[in-house]
Write a structure and sequence with these properties.
With 635 residues, the protein is an alpha+beta fold. It is 37% helix and 23% strand. It has a six-stranded mixed beta sheet, with helices on one face. It has a six-stranded mixed beta sheet with strand order 17-16-15-18-20-19. It is globular and about 95 Å long.
Length: 635
């Protein structure tokens, strides 16, 4: 992400933040300032925006304490509470602030180079180490402490230091009232990474449960529930469409489903099985539908992703062809078949999840589903509010949340962090091994090196700056620009458009090409060849290169998209779904066109994911290559 874009996203998420308080008497988090148990006033907890805290549950809770002890090479200096909060913070990869007794004690983060989780004590976590003398620490006789300072042996009054160069973190305190965190370098100095003015605090004696936290926040949860139910009833009354809950198997859609039942009684569930859902999620969705007696519509993508992968290569955050192929198309088909007159789609979308969702309205229409109104009843809820509501209502959650997962969905989504991928690897090694095997083969063929797989560089076409710097340290080389998808070129001369597909090893019959070009005009196929709007179409193929030339008034990029569709169709069905005349059908794994019914509108080209993302990837690649060449020249 560009620096300016990152700042804008941070500001948007800051505005989406909700305050969090802590009752020091009951030792529970509070959604509002007043505790529902003792009536006392809570202490504000300062967190990094959007302050979307969540509970550390199950395996994640157990592993956290083990990680702390492993990092400190000592017993845990913090009280082991049942209530521990995690708050996502910006970092190169997965990272959370760890909150115990309402105090941030450190950062749990995933070290990309090491390929493992780490814990860095900060703030109250550093204070606890200095106070207990448990773990690595150094007390210095200096007036001030700043980032980048190096403390020499003569500066230290007392210390327990790790092995030199081990990169283990050292809690730092000074006689002047500063604290910080640093590392012990190979030069026998403690280098300061971060510092602050020390603040006094005391651990709480109470160790409440999450049900105690629910009791403390019951009034707020009741208000949230009533507002969401009223919202759903009002939206349904306004649009008069049948409700359907988009049920992913995650916590947010579970709460949206429960609220929908309170608003309407039984509602239909729609589950998009992308073919990349973990088996626990698939089983869980079926159980919820069965236990609630709800109709379950499964929008199945089958093996669409894997078919698309052969043509498009690995998906990326800036190259998400997979979303259209495995999510949008099957979902749109299922909705059209079941709700011909439209539907009210109820989603578990929350604004704190991302800057784009923070900008999204609570009610909107999806341009790809024109007859569908989307409503987000928990749009303003925090993750903690969602979890406390789940505990309050005793809702059955997906078991993956207790196995180290925070985010559910496609297990190889390019939006995942490598820290999240660790949970997939630990629970389903066979799935991740399959994906990693593909990535290694792709990397080897393209000569990309180990960093491309290990650091997850496949997740971008344009690798962001912070990841580039990590890759540079890891391999000593700048991250490569990776070609993905069909390679093509387009030339126009004297009214003739020439499209060249490079690396095309398949066969393209005149009939297949004619059906694609019919999107642009009248086609004729005869023994004499193929014509588009009366002009001959020339097709040549040799040595893995396919050339199509046609004299036409149509735009060159329209011709290119049609040729790409003809050559690389993966049978996703997007063209069939959006053809206004019903002239396109997918049979035998590719599109077929009724030439007599075709209106030559070009809609099929516009909605084809293969054509769209092939063009997008090549434009981005050319732009990046141009920028790199200019940097080299400037140097």
């Amino acid at each position: 992400m560009k620096r300016g874009a990152g700042k804008r996203a941070f500001e948007i998420l800051r505005k989406a933040s909700k305050p969090l308080y802590w009752c020091d008497r009951c030792n529970v988090p509070l959604l509002t300032r007043v505790c529902g148990i003792c009536g006392g006033e809570g202490r504000p907890v300062k967190l990094t925006p959007p302050a979307d805290t969540r509970p550390a549950l199950g395996l994640e809770h157990v592993q956290l304490w083990k990680l702390i002890e492993s990092e400190l090479d000592a017993g845990c200096p913090y009280p082991r509470r049942r209530i521990v909060l995690l708050n996502k913070v910006p970092y190169v990869d997965s990272a959370d602030e760890v909150i115990v007794d309402g105090y941030v004690i450190g950062h749990r983060y995933y070290d990309l180079v090491r390929g493992s989780w780490r814990f860095k004590p900060v703030y109250y976590g550093v204070s606890a180490i200095l106070k207990s003398k448990v773990g690595y620490y150094a007390v210095a006789d200096v007036e001030i402490l700043k980032r980048g300072f190096e403390l020499h042996a003569e500066d230290l009054l007392e210390a327990n230091l790790p092995r030199r160069g081990s990169e283990k973190f050292v809690a730092i305190g000074t006689t002047s009232g500063y604290e910080g965190v640093g590392v012990y370098t190979k030069r026998k100095r403690v280098r300061v990474l971060k510092s602050w003015k020390a603040k006094s605090f005391e651990w709480n004696a109470a160790n409440p449960s999450w049900l105690d936290a629910v009791r403390a926040n019951e009034a707020r949860l009741a208000i949230l529930e009533q507002e969401a139910v009223d919202f759903l009833k009002n939206v349904a009354g306004k649009y008069k469409l049948p409700p359907v809950v988009s049920f992913s198997g995650g916590k947010d859609s579970l709460v949206a489903f429960w609220l929908s039942q309170k608003a309407f009684g039984k509602v239909t569930l729609l589950f998009n099985d992308t073919g990349l859902e973990l088996p626990e999620t698939v089983d869980y969705v079926k159980r919820v539908a069965q236990s609630s007696g709800s109709e379950l519509i499964v929008a199945s993508a089958g093996d669409a992703f894997w078919r698309g992968l052969e043509v498009m290569g690995p998906p990326a955050r800036d190259y998400r062809w997979c979303c259209k192929v495995a999510k949008l198309v099957p979902t749109a088909k299922a909705v059209r078949e079941r709700f011909a007159g439209g539907a009210l789609s109820i989603v578990g979308q929350r604004r704190a999840e991302s800057a784009s969702r923070a900008r999204s309205p609570r009610v909107y229409r999806n341009k790809w589903l024109p007859d569908v109104v989307v409503a987000a009843p928990i749009h303003s809820w925090s993750a903690l509010e969602v979890w406390l509501y789940i505990f309050k209502e005793r809702l059955p959650v997906n078991p993956l949340y207790f196995k180290g997962f925070d985010r559910l969905g496609c297990w190889l989504c390019p939006a995942i962090e490598m820290g999240e991928a660790e949970a997939v690897r630990e629970q389903h090694l066979e799935l991740w091994a399959k994906w990693e095997s593909y990535l290694r083969a792709f990397s080897e063929k393209a000569g990309l090196g180990e960093a491309w797989v290990k650091l997850g560089l496949w997740r971008w076409l344009a690798v962001p700056g912070d990841i580039k710097r990590v890759a540079q340290r890891f391999s000593g080389q700048e991250a490569s620009i990776v070609s993905r998808g069909p390679r093509f070129s387009v030339e126009t001369e004297d009214g003739e458009v020439r499209v060249e597909l490079k690396g095309f090893s398949g066969a393209l019959s005149p009939e297949d090409l004619a059906e694609a070009l019919s999107s642009l005009g009248t086609v004729e196929v005869s023994e004499g060849g193929l014509k588009l709007n009366g002009a001959p179409v020339k097709v040549e193929g040799a040595g893995g290169v396919l050339r199509v030339s046609v004299r036409t008034a149509k735009r060159a990029d329209d011709i290119a998209r049609a040729v790409i569709r003809a050559a690389y169709c993966v049978g996703c069905g997007s063209c069939e779904l959006w053809c206004p005349k019903g002239a396109v059908k997918v049979t035998g794994g590719r599109f077929r066109v009724d030439l007599a019914a075709c209106a030559h509108c070009g809609m099929c080209n516009a909605v084809c994911p293969v054509a769209e993302y092939a063009v997008r990837a090549q434009v981005l690649e050319e732009t990046l290559s141009s920028h790199r060449a200019k940097r080299v020249q400037a140097a």
